[in-house]
């Protein structure tokens, strides 16, 4: 004996099949807009999070930090006082990771790193300062430092690093005014706070020499 399903069940089954079929046919049509993947969405957000000032800040601050690290490494070898050696070590330890961080930003933003040849003597434009210290380029400042020894080295290192820090503060303030990337804004604030504090320390060291 063959049993057939009750008519209400067959009707419900047929209705459900038709509804599902209609839903399936409406998805993936050529007229539908493409759906961004999570990766594409994240990439788009990163690329639009910054502006030209953020790029300029990262490119120029990398070069500026590299100059400070170079001076600090020399001071760790040549400084006559432990206090200056310790400060130089702190400067290198703080600014080295910041250099790497800004490199990752430029890569994520799809922006090129600044060519060293173009940055060596360039001004900071709207940043409001230049790379120079007391009218000297990085190379000239390093040559002068290498010509000194003992307490005179310590004095010139502190004087030049104070000027170097003041330049970084002006650059960071420019980024805070005209930049927009949240991470760059955070770093700019940190640069201002850290380097103002270090200037106070170095000015006191100069008085004690």
Automatic annotation (TrEMBL):
<feature type="domain" description="DUF305">
    <location>
        <begin position="54"/>
        <end position="206"/>
    </location>
</feature>
<protein>
    <submittedName>
        <fullName>DUF305 domain-containing protein</fullName>
    </submittedName>
</protein>
<dbReference type="Pfam" id="PF03713">
    <property type="entry name" value="DUF305"/>
</dbReference>
<feature type="signal peptide">
    <location>
        <begin position="1"/>
        <end position="27"/>
    </location>
</feature>
<keyword id="KW-0732">Signal</keyword>
<dbReference type="InterPro" id="IPR012347">
    <property type="entry name" value="Ferritin-like"/>
</dbReference>
<dbReference type="InterPro" id="IPR005183">
    <property type="entry name" value="DUF305_CopM-like"/>
</dbReference>
């Amino acid at each position: 004996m063959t049993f057939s399903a009750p008519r209400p069940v067959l009707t419900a089954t047929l209705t459900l099949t038709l509804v599902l079929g209609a839903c399936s046919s409406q998805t993936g049509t050529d007229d539908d807009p493409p759906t961004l993947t999570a990766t594409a969405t994240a990439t788009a957000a990163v690329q639009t999070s910054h502006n030209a000032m953020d790029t300029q800040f990262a490119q120029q601050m990398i070069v500026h930090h590299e100059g400070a690290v170079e001076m600090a490494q020399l001071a760790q070898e040549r400084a006559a006082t432990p206090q200056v050696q310790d400060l130089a070590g702190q400067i290198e330890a703080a600014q080295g990771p910041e250099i790497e961080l800004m490199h990752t930003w430029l890569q994520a933003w799809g922006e090129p790193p600044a060519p060293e040849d173009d940055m060596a003597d360039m001004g900071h434009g709207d940043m409001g300062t230049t790379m120079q210290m007391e009218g000297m380029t990085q190379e000239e400042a390093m040559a002068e430092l290498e010509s000194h020894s003992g307490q005179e080295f310590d004095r010139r290192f502190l004087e030049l690093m104070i000027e170097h820090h003041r330049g970084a503060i002006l650059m960071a303030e420019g980024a805070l005014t005209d930049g927009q990337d949240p991470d760059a804004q955070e770093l700019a604030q940190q640069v201002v706070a850290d380097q103002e504090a270090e200037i106070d320390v170095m000015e006191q060291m100069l008085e004690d020499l």
